[in-house]
Amino acid sequence: MHGPALSGWLLMGLCAATGAYCLLRTRHGTERERASARAEALMGFGMAAMAVPAALFTLPEWTWVAYAVVFGAAALHAVVRARRGGRHLHHVVGSLAMVYMAVAMAPSAAHASGGGHLGHGAQPAGGVPALTGVLLVYYALYVLSSAGRLVPTPSPVGVPTAGGTAGPVWDARPELTLACRLTMGIAMFAMLLTL
Predict the structure, then answer these.
(1) Which pLDDT tens digit goes with each residue over 100-115?
(2) Residue 92: Cβ-neighbour burial (10 angstroms; 0-12, 13-18, 19+)
(3) pTM of the model as a whole
C-alpha cells in the first residue's frame, strides 16, 4: 500500500527537518529560547523516528518503553519550567501526547510482529478514544491559532519598513520558528489521527 508508506515517509522527513531547524535555533537567543528550541528539537526527532514506515523498519518492542521514559522525563522537565510561564505548558502536553502514543502503539507493535497477543481484558492498540479525541481537538485548535499568527499583517501607512537593514540570523527568525511549531502541530494531529 503506497499511500500510507508515502505519507509515513513525508511525515518522517518533515519532522526530521523541523527537528534539525530547532537544533540550529539552540545556538542563538536567550536561555529560555534555547531551552524551548531543545525541547522542540527532541519532539521533532522523536516524531520523525515514530513515523518511520513499518514496511521499512519495525521498531523493537523496547523502543516504546524508551519513548515513554524519554518523553515522560521531558514532560516532568517541562512541568518544572512551566512554573515560569511561556511555551512550556504546550511542551508538557506534547511530551505527554508522545508518551500516550508510545503506550498506545506498543500493543500493536507486539501484535503485528507476532511477539505477543492481547490477553483477556487487555486494551487493544489505539489508545482511549476519548483521550485521543481531546488531544485531536487540542492540536486542531493549536494548528489553527498558529496558522493565524503566520498571516502577515500590513504595516500602518506612513510607518517605514526595514527594507535595507540586515535581518536576524536565518536560524533565529520568528516566522520560521512559528512555521516549525505549526508543522509539528500538524504532524502530531496526523499521528494521533492514525491511532
Answers:
(1) 999 988 765 544 444 4
(2) buried
(3) 0.78
